[in-house]
Amino acid sequence: MTRSNKQYCIQYPQWSTAMKGEFDNIPIVNLSGLAADADPAERASTVAALKSALETSGFAYLANHGVPEDLVERMREMNVAFHQLPMEEKLALKINEFHRGYMPMSTSTIVTSSVAKVTKPNRSESLMVMHEVPDDAAYAGEPLQGPNQFPESLPEVAETARAYMAEMTKLGERIAGGLAEALGLPRDWFDQHFVEPTLFLRLLHYPEQPDEEQLFGSAPHTDYGFVTLLKQDDVGGLEVRNKHGEWIAAPPIPNTFVMNVGDILAKWSNGRFVSTPHRVRNLSKRDRYSQPFFYDPSMRALVACPDAMLGVGETATMEPVLYGDYLLERLNKNYDYRKKAS
């Protein structure tokens, strides 16, 4: 799975579209270089490897990521335990207006997909957890700013999810610093846009699915946000599409996360980083469980391509947008409960 990576100058990155989408595997990137005590040469190597991966496939396996493996495993166990609860107990937590809670089987359809005409809902169920909102927060009650929902009979789900999201947020912060450098920006450039980050942890269950045309665990799509950090179990089923339309398997690799670029980061980077279509088909004859974590900007963040990143004669291809407006537009189109409420 490994591949060599060219070394790039962090301060003055060169950008070429020649290799974009030209891949037949997903590289492994050693994130130890993003640790606070890493030496500059090691950091430069890690940043260069991230840059190469995200400009080419938009995907990377992250090794030495710093998230305790016992916590990752406990989160997987809680994911399985939640989905084994009686249906009436899960339905009591049905997703609320703040996009938190249980989503029953086949209640999301990716109609905003730019890579496929999706007509059948995803064959999956999930518990959606987002960032905690203090009761006395000035923004409490605004869109996507409300309470999480957890099963009372399994308090360990809430405890583990909060601990897991705290560690994953730290990882997201380290990655954001590396990506800023890969774009020729100061390491802390993204910090101002993540003061109150928008966080999602989705505990997904994909039952065995029939091999039926246009039926997917997750239909072909690109992610909305900044970066996705996925932990999958040993079942497999994730596939990534290259520029030739070939679906490349992204099998699980122990002790790694799968990271991918979301649409807003692709726009922010003026197309340097690519948001690549991917899908899930669970044809394994086993249940599949995964736990994607989405690290996104503050709802109030103004996403605009920085002038400092643009080369001579290069112009920004995106119009500035408030991240919250952008995100809500996509959620409102793709989730049944939001369509009915609107």
TrEMBL record:
UniProt-listed PROSITE patterns: FE2OG_OXY
Domain named Fe2OG dioxygenase: residues: 197-297
Entry EC no(s): 1.13.12.19, 1.14.20.7
Cofactor(s) annotated in UniProt: Fe(2+)
UniProtKB keywords: Ethylene biosynthesis, Iron, Metal-binding, Oxidoreductase
Domain of life: Bacteria
Reactions catalysed according to its record: L-arginine + 2-oxoglutarate + O2 = guanidine + L-glutamate 5-semialdehyde + succinate + CO2; 2-oxoglutarate + O2 + 2 H(+) = ethene + 3 CO2 + H2O
Top-level EC class: oxidoreductase
Classification via InterPro entries: DIOX_N, IPNS-like_FE2OG_OXY, IPNS-like_sf, Iron_ascorbate_oxido_reductase, Oxoglu/Fe-dep_dioxygenase_dom
Pathway(s) it belongs to: Alkene biosynthesis; ethylene biosynthesis via 2-oxoglutarate
Pfam families: 2OG-FeII_Oxy, DIOX_N
Family: Belongs to the iron/ascorbate-dependent oxidoreductase family.
Entry protein name: 2-oxoglutarate-dependent ethylene/succinate-forming enzyme
Organism from which the protein derives: Jiella pelagia
